[in-house]
Give the backbone structure.
Amino acid sequence: MKINLEQLSSQFQQRLDQFKIDPSIKPVLSFHEEISENDILTTKLYLQHPTQEIGLAVTIDKIYFSEPKSEQEIDRFLKKVLEPYFQLIQDPDPVLDFPNSLTSYSAIKNKIFLRLRDPDYNQEADPSWIQFPVCQGLHANARVGFWKSEKEFCSTPIDQRLLDTWNIDKEQLYEQAMINLKQEHVLLLDPRDPTYTNKISFSSLPTNTIYALSTINYYNGASVILVPSLLASIAQKLNENFYLLPSSINDIMLVPRSFKPGIKRMRQTLLAANKEITSERDFLSNKIFYYDSLTNQIECVHKESDEDHYLA
């Protein structure tokens, strides 16, 4: 059953308006569908403080919406969720602070990021989710997310409805995502070190080795290839172009052109990494990409027939 979230939000807000609540603290209600890290679709009710950047998110079981609710049933539900909301605004918990609310763009704009995906391997469930082309065989999805703890990251895709709520367009969304991405601390690592403790200086880059490119917190690190100036800087220090092997959404292997492993061998390396190391959740692609410093662009070279062209 398809849920009309706007109609639902309006219906619940109308019932809430019947409650005798001080307008200065009465929450603004909105329903959102979100995709968890395990790609499970959930419906959440957000209770946003009218003036402060704080709010509460409540996950709703879809069974609850299997049939229309009477005004009395909605009122009982609202009374139940208002109790923790009032507790929160009296003593705000930073874990529940405003990354949990998607209704205020100013509150979450620095949480927007881009995640790479291969459209041939990862089909999107909803065409309204915002995505940007990177090159043939590689796209970037816009998401908003935050760290719930040191080890738990939560995010949800951004769709057109959220853009309308924030009153921004796709170009503004992309600009903000790139601002956030450029603030990430990028690392070059040794892919032979499973703990990634061997950090490599950007000042001296020999061409007879393979590197791994990621960020300091490792999560979603492969997206750094979306920064053209970074790739140009690496090519300048290597004094040559390089291949990109997407070993996961969190890191990407970088192979200098003069290393000359050949497309077939690189594909074997990538397939082995994706099969033996990368989890299904973090899988990105089995394709191989090539960065050309003359055009400052990435292109897909997944066909073995392309090998002679690039290694000539």
The helical segments are 5-16, 71-90, 105-108, 160-166, 170-182, 228-238, 263-276, 307-311. Residues 92-100, 303-312 have pLDDT under 50 and may be disordered. The chain has eight helices and 14 strands. The chain has three domains: 5-103, 106-182, 186-311.
